[in-house]
Each structure stands twice: as structure tokens, then as C-alpha cells.
Amino acid sequence: MTDSTFDDLFSIKGKVALVTGGSRGIGEMIAAGFLAKGAKVYISSRKAAVCDETAKRLAETYGGDCVSLPADLSQLSGVESLAARMAELEPKLDILINNAGVSWGAKLEAFPEIGWDKVMDTNVKGVFFLTQKLMPLLRAAASAQSPARVINIGSIDGLKTAAFDTFSYGASKAAVHHLTRFMAAHLTKEHIIFNAIAPGPFPTWMLSTGVGGGGDVDNTDWDRVGRGNPSGRVGTPQDIAGLAIFLSSRAGQYVVGQTIACDGGSVAAA
Can you tell me the distance from the alpha carbon of 16 to that of 114, in angstroms, rounded to the nearest whole number? Predict the structure, then answer.
């Protein structure tokens, strides 16, 4: 052992992070936690006005630098544009959170091709190619003492069968989990660490559309949703940001290629 101290074990202060899908939901929660702990955070989402507003609000609430970089990551042109803008703004990238994702629900017999292609293009293809295009910045940040981190946001729907008719979504998240292991096998020796988080129920727009809230996060009955979970609640920003901070810090440096459920016991009880 070359370091016997436990100073700054969970610190990400001064790190540069990019959180895709960072304008709302789990991405916003992780971005908020990173800002609160002293990281410089870039957030990206498809809708420019929403991304700009969230970045401004997060910076005002938690301090530090939060920069909006809107992009459509379902298109390779959007992936390339985001990577190019990051390279113009930063010489290195310490943490990449691949969170941007979409879902599609339809009965099996009526499930459309666009509901397959849109989900796979965003959730799997976008994750792979954004990581590919950002490799020069990740390599510039990587060292044996402080590896770069890539955290792919999967889902418990990629670990167990979902209650919803979201066939492409579950398949896409299972692919993200395996892609995480695959990338870890290739890049850990370059000091770029890959892990995945599989969130369970959190108070997000996406889940609200599936549990009867119609996308109205504030007026969805999250207490009712939480009662179906072994923990008796849905997740909080502290839950998901805490795990992301752990995986991005010295404390999580020896955790490699794993998919960690952050779900209050949903998978264990399945």
C-alpha cells in the first residue's frame, strides 16, 4: 500500500464532470450532488431552454460552476457536437455520467419500430459513441493515482422484468450494463474506470408517466409508489448522488465494471 491515509476519501472537489440528461430527474440529482461537493459540472439535455434554466438554478442553489451544453444524443451529430464543445472548454474530463435516456411503452402486438430504434439509439448507441468521442479528454484526466470515471446509468428494468410494456427500454438497459463490463475490460488498464448504476423508483418524469402521474412529478403520489418498495419509499437525490460520488471518488476506485442497484430493495424482493 502506497497511501495509508483516509483524507479526502469521498472528495470530488475540483473534478470536472459531464452529466448527460442533466436537466431533470436522476441526472439533475447527480449534478446537484456533484456541485455541492465542489466539482465543476457540465449538463446536457436535448431541450436547450430547459438545460440552460436548470444549469442556472443549480449554480445558484449549490454554488460553483454549472454549464449548459444542450445536445440531442440520439443522433451521432449531436454526440459529436457535444464532444467537440467539451474539448473546446476543457483539457480533460474526470467524470462522465452517461444518464441521457428515453423509454417507450406499447403493447407487444402494437410496439412500433420507432419505439425500438429511438430507445436503442439514445440509451445504447449514444452512450457508446459519446464515450468514444470523449476518450481523449478521459485519457488526459486518467492516472494511476486518480483514474477517470465513467458511470453509465442503467436501470433495475435491465436486471429484472418490469411491470410496464417497455420492451426496448429493459433490453437497452441490460445492454448498458453489459457494455459497462465490456468497456471496463478494455480500459481499466488505462486508468479509466467504468461502472453502472441501476436506479429503482425515483421521483422522475419518466416514472411518473408509468405510475399514473402523467409526467407531473410534483403531483404524483410518490408515497403510494414507495409503499410498494421494501424500503417503503422512493429514492432521494442524496441516495443517487451519494452512490455516484462514491464511485467517482477515491473510495470507489477499486470498484470496477460493476452494476450497482440503487433501488431500496426492489431487485432483492423480485
Answer: 35
Contact 34, 41 (CB under 8 A): yes
Whether the CA torsion 67, 68, 73, 79 is positive or negative: it is negative
| Residue of 45, 46, 36 whose CA lies nearest to 15 | 36
Does residue 146 have a pLDDT over 50? yes
Side-chain-facing half-sphere of 140: CA atoms under 13 Å:
12
Cell numbers representing residue 97 in the block: 455520467
pLDDT range class, residue 181, cuts 50, 70, 90: very high
For the four alpha carbons of 131, 135, 137 and 143, in that order, the dihedral sign comes to positive
Contact 39/13 with Cβ under 8 angstroms? yes
Q: At residue 2, does pLDDT exceed 80?
A: no
49 φ/ψ angles, rounded to the nearest 5 degrees: -65, -40
From the list 42, 62, 169, 254, the catalytic residue is: 169
Indicate the CATH number for domain 19-200+235-262: 3.40.50.720
Task: Confirm whether 169 is a catalytic residue.
Answer: yes
The pLDDT tens digits of the residues spanning 72-127 come to 999 999 999 999 999 999 999 999 999 999 999 999 999 999 999 999 999 999 99
Span 254-262, mean pLDDT? 98
Residue boundaries of the structural domains of the chain:
19-200+235-262
**Residue 239 is placed in which grid cell?**
441516495
CA distances from 188 to 64, 112, 142, 193, 255 (A): 30, 38, 10, 5, 11
End-to-end alpha carbon distance in the chain: 40
